[in-house]
Specification:
- The protein is mainly α and about 55 residues long.
- It has one domain.
- About 65% of the residues lie in helices and about 10% in strands.
- The protein contains two helices and two strands, in the order ββαα.
- It has a two-stranded antiparallel ribbon with strand order 1-2.
- α1 packs across α2.
- The radius of gyration is 14 Å and the shape is elongated.
- The N and C termini lie far apart (about 40 Å).
- The mean pLDDT is about 80.
Amino acid sequence: MKTYPMLSFRCDDKLLKQIRKEAKRRDMNTSEFIKEAVTFHLQNIAEVRTMQPQ
């Protein structure tokens, strides 16, 4: 397990391996890739919330 302090989450070895592989494929470091993925995910959540009927 590895802890990423900037996001305060734990990542198991299998997931971390996939994250590192994808980050390398995109020519990014692991931290940058995680930040980008989390930002993208949060933006999608915000869009879904605005699309839901009140």
